[in-house]
Amino acid sequence: MKAVFKVFVLLVYCCINVQSSKILFIACMPAPSHQKPFQAIWRALAEKGHEVHALTPNPLNISTLNNLHEYDLSDFYNLLKNTNQEDFKYYTKKPEFHTAFIKDYYITKVWTRFYAAVLQHNETRRLINSNTNFDAVIVEWLYPTMGAFAPFFKAPLIGVTSLGAPLSSMDTVGNPWHPIISPDMNLPLPRGMSLKDRILTVLYSIYVRIHYHLLILPREDASIKAFLSKELPYIGNIEKEISVLLLNRNSILHRLMSLTPATIELGGIKFPKERQELGTELKKFLDDSKNGVVYFSLGSTVKGTFLPRKTVELFTSVFRNLPYNVLWKWENNTMDQKPDNVFLSKWIPQINVLDHPNVKLFITQGGLQSTEETIAAHKPIIGIPFHSDQTTNVDTCVQYGMGKMIELEDLTAEKLRSYILEIINNPSYAENAKKLDELMKDQPQDGLEKAIWWIEYVIRHKGAKHLRSTAVDLPWWKYLMLDIFAFISAIFLAIVLVLYYSFKFIVQLGSKLFRKNDNSTKKKSE
């Protein structure tokens, strides 16, 4: 009876202490790799008993979770396909020194139109019309636009990213950002930066802030006023009210940086391995490839069909002469002169493929989710980075000795073939991938558990203003200490001027005295 009583007391205690909150989660970017961490978070919140409303292009549609309400934005994938190619082409092309600035200009125009479409979407209107309050609003923190839903529903604001965060996003929590030590994640810079790279990152850090505050924020503010509410504060003030910013990054894989208490590094999220069917043909291909398989995929945004014809021909010529089979994510039904040892597929269950023992190498663009999945599978890589954080991710893998990097413009058949043969025939690359996996996972708390804890922390305290950095409220000239430098410079200049004029006065006085004495001496001698 005592044991039954203890169990009863424990159940009552748990029921009393379970806090069921109403949470809005907005993650609108139409990219499966970006949505994956967000899906894990809102699903875990719902499984803990919270009432979760998710505005997303990738709804989970879990019928057993009655407290999970998803608003379907899946038609945004078509919207992205129909985007003006002149604007969007810079997203899938690795920027050079001068095009980094042009890319930022065009991409911000794309996202402005995209967020305006979100605000006008029928599912967004349905969300607004069916809800009057939330205990927290969680927003994918690329732009602060969707953060306007926090003051709209009078709820604390939480930012979350599926990778790192750009400069402007880090500024909203007052995070110190050194342009050399921690350059913007959108710049394709390796860790060992040249003088040209360092000049680029400094100029870019200045440009992106001026562009953000003078053009982007007024544009986004006009959008929320037009489509959400004219009574909302200025978007530049809304973004400063963010309670915490959750970054899906791991210090082992990413550049080290100083973080404020409101900037939470999740350390990566371990996803449950969903055993998706490989498909009869794909499974047979992998099982029968006794010599090994090279898996080639450029992710969901950079499609294989985007590659120039000459580049595709280069890959096919190399693959044709390999002693291995090749699994190629290819978005068309056919390929000209397809090698016999190549298996084409528009969609590939990547985690299960990487876990297959016959897969020996992954040729990848270096996106964060692809990189993490490769490391977890202990497979080496050849990275061909295109945009955003891909260069840094691939460069990290190279630094840890689990792969090689090839710039697309430097790609040759000889280099590609030699890298493939070297990596597959040298077991140290796979061993180093395993060591890196162990380093990344050796932390006190999984990223998903940490994310849930901080979200509930903000809800418990109705915000986290006590974690707010004073840097958030400082004008830029005070943050850069320009007034102090001006004051010190003025004092220094005043001292220099005093010394200069004092010295000049002494010299002139001495000169007059010398001439006077000299004249007196001459008169006496006469």
Description of the structure:
The chain has two domains: 18-270 and 446-477, Rossmann fold (3-Layer(aba) Sandwich), CATH 3.40.50; 280-441, Rossmann fold (3-Layer(aba) Sandwich). The relative contact order is 0.10. The protein has helices spanning 2-17, 32-47, 76-81, 85-88, 99-120, 122-130, 149-152, 167-171, 195-227, 235-238, 280-288, 309-320, 350-355, 368-376, 390-399, 413-425, 428-441, 447-460, 476-479, 482-525, and strands at residues 22-26, 51-56, 68-72, 136-140, 157-161, 242-247, 263-265, 293-297, 325-329, 342-345, 359-364, 381-383, 403-405. The protein is globular and about 120 Å long. The protein is α/β, with parallel strands linked by helices. 48% of the residues lie in helices and 12% in strands. The chain crosses the membrane at residues 476-503. It catalyses: glucuronate acceptor + UDP-alpha-D-glucuronate = acceptor beta-D-glucuronoside + UDP + H(+). It is a single-pass membrane protein.
